[in-house]
């Protein structure tokens, strides 16, 4: 078993972003001095599955490439003993998150938004063609290759991805971007667990189209700078008013930002 340290120097101080499973760091390949992104996961079946699904999808130009994966025993400073970990070396996306770029510009022009949308859609189409649902599509998981205005956009973080065998039941989501069908699955799941309703022989499932709902939300955010479904209440779970808006698909195009935006763009969001 090769140690990653034979081939790479790891920069432990610089963090590129925080995935669901901890920070992504910078590492430098010794032979070429090229910079890569390094994600470190505890070596568990869930992590192996994430790597497997990401690698299946990563042949596409709009999905962040995995360069290589090491299975090493690693001890972090706060730990008393080393633990088995997967060290995933990925291509470096110097341009950072779509989330950050929207904040910088407040919002995008339709041309900018359409370029991002096209690439995100191609990435999703590729995952879906392999029957893989990403399930965590959000602006933090779309990365720019560099800082140029027309930098390529790539999808990352397959921590919630799953093969869609018609059995997607366990909801994984970020509240702003979650599809109604995922909330409904969660609601039924909780009621069955607490015995309010009998456990159904044919459980309520959702499918890959949950990713398309999230894409619609992202297009909305790119065009105006704020999400279509939100709540004045801050809470760890989804506030009731926000849940209701999502379930009924109730959102608006506030005049101030949307008066300048074409009917065609609004139509894509409505779909």
From TrEMBL:
Keywords: ATP-binding, Kinase, Nucleotide-binding, Serine/threonine-protein kinase, Transferase. It comes from the Eukaryota. The keyword Aminoacyl-tRNA synthetase does not apply. Residues 10-271 form the Protein kinase domain. One of its GO terms (molecular function) is protein serine/threonine kinase activity. The keyword ATP-binding applies. PROSITE patterns: PROTEIN_KINASE_DOM, PROTEIN_KINASE_ST. Pfam families: Pkinase (PF00069). InterPro entries: CDPK_Ser/Thr_kinases, Kinase-like_dom_sf, Prot_kinase_dom, Ser/Thr_kinase_AS. PANTHER family: SERINE/THREONINE-PROTEIN KINASE (PTHR24349). Belongs to the protein kinase superfamily. CAMK Ser/Thr protein kinase family. This is MAPK5 kinase. It comes from Geococcyx californianus. The lineage of its organism: Eukaryota, Metazoa, Chordata, Craniata, Vertebrata.
